Amino acid sequence: MTVTPLHVGICLLAALITSIVVRFIVGDERREMWFAQTKSTLINQRGRLGQYLSLGYPKTKQGFVVWLGLVALIVAEIFIIINIEL
């Protein structure tokens, strides 16, 4: 198992794509119910696209389950990508 810059780049791209896909699966209505959004501040600047794609942080049990599933999926992807010889 060797971590190369190519592995890191692929992991980042896979995590980004996975989180965007999960965001679209969750949809706007469930996102509003299950997740809370942080307001943009001087330290935390987000544009329209970033605000739209952001899930936020879980505020209900369903949101926590979705978040936990997303984290588990990303960890599994990273494990698989790092163990592939490129």
Give your account of this protein's structure:
The chain is mainly alpha-helical and 86 residues long. 69% of the residues lie in helices and 5% in strands. The protein is built from three helices and two strands, in the order αβαβα. A two-stranded antiparallel sheet has the order 1-2. The radius of gyration is 15 Å and the shape is globular.
Topology of this protein?
Elements: H1 5-34, E1 35-36, H2 48-53, E2 57-58, H3 61-83
Antiparallel strand pairs: 1-2
Helix pairs in contact: 1-3
Q: What is the structure about, briefly put?
A:
The chain has 86 residues and is mainly alpha-helical. It has helices spanning 5-34, 48-53, 61-83; strands at residues 35-36, 57-58. Helix 1 (5-34) runs antiparallel to helix 3.
Largest sheet geometry: 2 strands, antiparallel
Number of helical stretches of at least 4 residues = 3
Q: Which strand order spans the largest sheet, edge to edge or round the barrel?
A: 1-2
Radius of gyration: 15 Å
Beta-strand portion reads under 5%
Low-confidence segments, given as residue ranges, are none
Q: How far is the N terminus from the C terminus?
A: 11 Å
Shape, principal axes of CA atoms? globular
List the keywords.
globular; 86 residues; 69% helix; two-stranded antiparallel ribbon; 3 helices; single chain; mainly alpha
